[in-house]
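note to self: the first set is below, dont mix up w the second
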Amino acid sequence: MVKRLLVTAAIAAPLVLMSVADQARLGAQSGTSVVINEFRVRGPNGGNDEFIELFNPTAAPMDISGWKIRGSNAAAGVGDRLTVPPSTILGPGCYYLATNSGSSGYSGTVVGNQTYTTGITDDGGLALTLANNSIVDQVGLSAGSAFGEGTRLTSLGSTTASNLDRGYSRVAAGVDTNDNDADFDLLTPSDPQNRASVPGCASPPVGQGDAVISQVYGGGGNSGSVFTNDFIEIFNPGPDPVNLAG
């Protein structure tokens, strides 16, 4: 029996050590992770009429809690645009929409799942990163952008004549060959999608999501107390790991 327990521990350890961050890095290398699927950095309302659509092309839910969307200008200046809230699980085949809520911002009718207020420059770029800024996916609109893969996309302009309902969308949803020019086509009109766009995606899949507080003991050390110390017990009711980082 002891030998069986030791063998089980040896097999299980690598699975535990394969964190969400490690899975994302491996996924980004193999084209099987969450990607930037469609985006617009200018629209009918002007330069802030933006959206960024993420997509999970994998067969498994992905915990994107703490991930970031970052922007770059054409001189490689970089800054955060948003950080995904805790306990955000993106199911397989599901979308996550970020929209600009600044002045003259996003004008689309599909509601964003999260908003940001600092725009992406017309000839810059954007990236989806982990909490530590490790890049999961990236798109560039100029050679000077800090972000981009392979041949960069062409900027769609920065004048009022460029204020059109169009954006860049992946040729095939979720397919990433690590070359922006090969992976994206111009889409007119743009077609943003959010978590509610796909049935079953608005909420985390069954068995996924939050861990729960399953037991609390606050009388530790008191006269007649059963236990010497207080404790809080956290329980994962689902069959899959839950990332408790942060």
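second set (the one i keep forgetting abt)
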Amino acid sequence: MVASAFTAPHVTEFLTVDVTPTIDLLAHAREHPPAGGTRVTLLALVAHAVCDALGRHPELNSSWDEERQEIVRHGRVNLGIAAATDRGLVVPNIPDAAALSVPQLAAGLGELTELARSGRTPAERLRGGTFTITNIGVFGIDAGTPILNPGEAGILALGAAARRPWEYRGEVALRDVLTLSLSFDHRLVDGEQGSRFLAEVGNALAEPGLALLSGATR
């Protein structure tokens, strides 16, 4: 992590989003669980939005080859999830996460968490990640400046969703709001590319119905 922090030129951008429609969708899903019983979480929806946006912004799903001095774009999204355990921080990944549906991602995230906490994560799941999500919201934290997982171009921190006064349809209302924090390697990702990616992830959480209609599901 020290090498990552002092080798890759980090840039961090923040986006605060009204995610009330997504929170309402999750509440509805809890009342009417899908077949198979997999519990869909906010993190699973964020993971889905990230995978979908990475397909249009491959710069965020790339690495820097120091030996060849060139950018390497990855054909698949191996989505890393930062997990705090009794043994410290680990970042196991879900291979080919972009090919999974929301329920499949939710199941994969549950499996990763269980394996990480028990210390049984297979070694191959700790290698080859291409993009990482860290869920700092579970600790009540709003935003941060995450450090890139070594070898990756981007990492997204998911802040806590909380009810706050927010402008809604010309009035002030209590809405569910959260902040997304995106750090990226400026050698690989320009500011415009990072901003567009972050905006797309935010839009998918603000309007989950439109994200599904646009063909985001796989």
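remember for set 2: Residues 67 and 151 are 13 Å apart (CA to CA).
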